[in-house]
Amino acid sequence: MRALLVDRSAPAGLRLGEAPDPEPAPHQALVRVTATSLNYGEVTAVVRNAPDGAVPGWDAAGVVERAAADGSGPAAGTPVVTLGFEGAWAEYRAVDTSYIGTLPGNADFGAVSTIPVAAGSALRALHRLGPILGRRVLVTGATGGVGRYAVQLARLGGAHVVASTGDPGAHGDALRALGAHEVVDRPSSLGDPVHGVLDMVGGPTLVEAYGRLAEGGTLVAVGHVTGEPETFPFGALSGDLGHDRSVVTFFLPSCGGLAPDFTWLAGQVASGRLDPGISWRGGWQKAQEAVALLLGRRLHGKAVLDLGPVF
């Protein structure tokens, strides 16, 4: 099959080439890929660290070519959205049926391909906060793929949403259009404290956000794009400064039951209730362009590759 392969001698570390067809395990379906969305973590960690010849890719949408042998998951011919640890950037991928959501008939494959890592992380991270109706929720790194979905889902859940971005002047209107009630440049600029935080940034931003938690509040650490350590000042974790505040770590693949979440999220995207925030879209022969934009932090939203004539 044709695939995007890791090749450190090529621009952006990728080239189009041939790879062996995947052989699904009994609990996996074989999916013919139609579109995939790129994540910052893929182009930084996976592409840079995977061996030459590897086929990266976490998120993909397509059609079930062959159902799982054990009878789980959707039937052949079903349009689906999928999550895996590798193999999305190819004509075919083998996927655990627990990571496969089904699509409504009107779904745009490119739009729903943005769901698994970005929308799945936002939804499950919000679940970690507990009930958010009528509560103040801060989303840091709100212009990224996960952040944009988190703003929208928090608003749908009834929260008072505060979005944090490094440039409110440039991105404030767009974030308010997604559902943010307030837009700030950093957590320390907040007025009133918040009941929950979804942090996509890590480092000093996480520490600042923790300092704005109300009593009993929770911060969910979702992303760590800065690469900087989280260094808390002495006494920051003392109970007399805010009783029972907590920091919760998060890793999407450790969450169970993702298939129903992906199915529900796909319905929301297809209906227009959730905006996938696609800021770049093109054929897979332009993958190097998309990767370069992501590495340069020049994309605010999602990059989508459509399976094109090159295959």
What does the radius of gyration come to? Answer: 20 Å
Architecture of the largest domain, CATH level 2? Alpha-Beta Complex
Count up the helices: 8
User: What name does CATH use for the topology of the largest domain?
Assistant: Quinone Oxidoreductase, Chain A, domain 1
Protein name: Zinc-binding dehydrogenase
Domain Enoyl reductase (ER): 9-305
InterPro entries: ADH-like_C (IPR013149), ADH-like_N (IPR013154), ER (IPR020843), GroES-like_sf (IPR011032), NAD(P)-bd_dom_sf (IPR036291), Zn-ADH-like_protein (IPR051397)
Pfam families: ADH_N, ADH_zinc_N
Question: How does this structure look, described?
Answer:
The chain is an alpha/beta fold and 311 residues long. The protein folds into two domains: 2-114 and 276-306, Alpha-Beta Complex (Quinone Oxidoreductase, Chain A, domain 1); 119-252, Rossmann fold, CATH 3.40.50. It has eight helices and 15 strands. The strands form three sheets. Strands 3, 4, 5, 6, 7, 14 and 15 form a seven-stranded mixed beta sheet that branches. Strands 10-9-8-11-12-13 form a six-stranded parallel beta sheet, sandwiched between helices. It has a two-stranded antiparallel sheet with strand order 1-2. Helix 3 packs across helix 4 (145-156) and helix 3 (115-129) packs across helix 7 (258-271). The longest helix is centred in the middle third of the chain and has 15 residues, at 115-129. The N and C termini lie close together (9 Å). 49% of the residues are buried. The mean pLDDT is 93. This is Zinc-binding dehydrogenase. It holds the Pfam family ADH_zinc_N. InterPro entries: ADH-like_C (IPR013149), ADH-like_N (IPR013154), ER (IPR020843), GroES-like_sf (IPR011032), NAD(P)-bd_dom_sf (IPR036291), Zn-ADH-like_protein (IPR051397).
